[in-house]
Each structure stands twice: as structure tokens, then as C-alpha cells.
Amino acid sequence: MSIHTADVDDRAGGHHVGARPTSSHGDERAARWADRLWSAVLAGDNHAAVDVVGDALGAGLDAEAVLLDVIGAVQHRVGVEWAANRMSVAGEHTATAINDRAIAALPTGRPGAPRGRITVACVDQEWHALPARLVAETLRLRGWQVDYLGAQVPTAHLIGHIHRTGPDAVCLSGSLATRLPLAHRAITAVQAAGPPVMTGGLAFGADGRYACLLGADAWAPDARAAADRLAAGPLPRPAPAHQVIDDLPHLGDQEYTMVAGSSARLVRDTFHALQQRFPFVRDYTDEQRERTAEDLAHIVDFLIAALYVDAPEIFTGFLAWTADVLSARGVPVQALMAGLDLLEEQLRDFPRARNYIGAGRDALTTRL
Questions:
Q1: Taking 60 as the threshold, does the pLDDT of residue 136 lie above it?
Q2: Is 111's pLDDT higher than 70?
Q3: Which residues have a Cβ under 8 Å from the Cβ of 111 and sit 6 or more positions away?
Q4: Given pLDDT bands bounded at 50, 70 and 90, which one contains residue 10?
């Protein structure tokens, strides 16, 4: 198997990552300005992007609509174009940087009496900061004092910040389901420190099901919904301190712990078996070998995340999305199937993991 794609952490759209599309409450006039910003993004033109922001505001579009219905919509489109193989990883990074610059061009008011103080942060190891920034900037526009901590905030540092600042609530963002175990630890730690937690981002499910499962006090599908919920009144106070296994009793079977602890060996042994089973793999270039090992690591990571929350759809959804991405790049689904078969041989003693792999194989079969 050799997928030759960028790291999943760089995939800025599609099934797992990226700013959410415009909400149903957006300003319909924004589409014109989103098209202009898209042209600036494709040209790699920071100055043109800043001009779009100024022109849209001058034309009467309010700052929140520019933020969410122009900049947010363009970022979502970036992800769609990457997945369809119409934009490179370098192009995606350039687009994200330009969108960050466009956000910085928005006016920043200073309310005399803020509604309250909110901390906004990405969970540990979550690099996709733009969705969290959209939330932070929306809350600022709505009159909140916001501490925006950015990408991959270690939980210990987050707790230290909470003790220093005493926020009314903490908003945690996660784009990749592989971050759910770390998100769970962050949620329980923040709640133990006092403030309630609102979560958001595609990692928590399109309907927030994993936010509920992990004990979050609230969930919002997008930045507007998050701001609306906070404006509606205080979030419920956290439940008394508890252990992770209280939320996820299935972890008592130890499959998650044992598979997660052996992830490096699983990738290594599966890759070795791949070389033995398919001799042509031995002739791969160094780059091909590196990419194949990365692909196997991503498969294992999503399997581990699925085991953590006992949700096979996390694993099957990742495989189906990856198959679509690969198809756009001319890589056959059989490449994924081979990796699954060999991984299953390594996990013969783990019934939940094997069931998930079987479900993943079934999902891929429909794409053959």
C-alpha cells in the first residue's frame, strides 16, 4: 500500500478537518465577497484578501458575516478542493495563512463592560487552529473578553491559565477524532478546576455525540451557535469530579489501552508483513516507504480513537473518506484493503478491534 498523500494533520477539509461551512443564519450577500476572497486565496495575494475584508465592510456587511460567511466559507472550500485533488498541501497552507491575515484585518472593538470572560483553546496535539479562532473572534465581536490560546494547548498549561484568569467557561476545539482521548482528559481536568466546558469541531461528531459521551457541559456545531448558547445564559456547572472510566465503562476491557500501547509495533509489523506479502513494496523509494508507514499509522490512530469511545463509525468513516481522497489521486481501494487484512492478523486477540476492521472492510467493499 502506498497512498502518497499528505499527513492527515494537513488535510484541511473533507470528512475530518477544517472550518465548518456557513451556517443557515449567514448573510446571503456574503457569497459575492467569498468568491472574491477565494480568488485572492488562489492568487496567494494577502493584500487583495485584506482589501476584500475592507470592501465587504464598506458595502454594509457586518464584521461577523465577513468572519464566518466569507472567511469561514472560503476555508471550508479549501478543504473541499484539497480532498478533490484540486489543491496541494502547500496551497492549503498558503490559503490558511491568508485567511488568518484576513481575520486580523477585521475591526476589534473594546467593550466597556464585557459580558464575561471565555477561554478558547484547541485540545493538546490539535494543530487546526482556525475553527477555534473563528469562535474566539465571534465571541469578541459579541462583547466577551476572550483568551484565545491557539493550537495544541497542553492540558497542564490550560489548567494553569484557568487558575490565573478564572474564566466563566472554556471552549475546546478539536478537528480530528484521533484527539478524542486527549480531549476527554482536558474536559475532565477543566471541570475539576471549576469552569464548565463547551466543545466544538468535527472531532466531536456532526451532532456532538462524542461531546456528550465525554461529559462536556455543552456542544456547539459552529461559531454562531457557540456564541448564541453563551449569550443565552451560564452553562450548567460541571458534575462532581469523576474518573475517565465513569464516562466510558467499556474501557474496562483494556482493548484501547493495549492497542494504543502497541501502536508503534502494530505499524512496524504490518509494514513488514506488507513487504513480505507484496514483493513490489520492497522496491519502493524511501519516500514511498515513508508515506506507506504514515498511512498505516493513521489507520491505527483512527482505530484507537474508535476503540476509546466505542464508536466503529469513527474508523469506518475515516476509511471511506480516505478511499474517496485516494480515488481522486488514482490510488485503488485495494491498497487500503491489503493494509486492513494485515492489521487484522496482528490484532487477532482483540475482538472489538477486529469487528471494527471488518466493518471498515465492508465499507470499502462498496467502493470496489
A1: yes
A2: no
A3: 143, 145
A4: very low
Residue 301, C-alpha cell as written in the block: 490512530
- Give the residue with greater pLDDT, 356 vs 329: 356
Distance between CA atoms of 234 and 352, rounded to whole angstroms?
39
pLDDT value at 167 more than 80: yes
Among 217, 213, 208, 220, CA closest to 237: 217
Mean pLDDT estimate for the chain = 88
**pTM of this structure:** 0.88
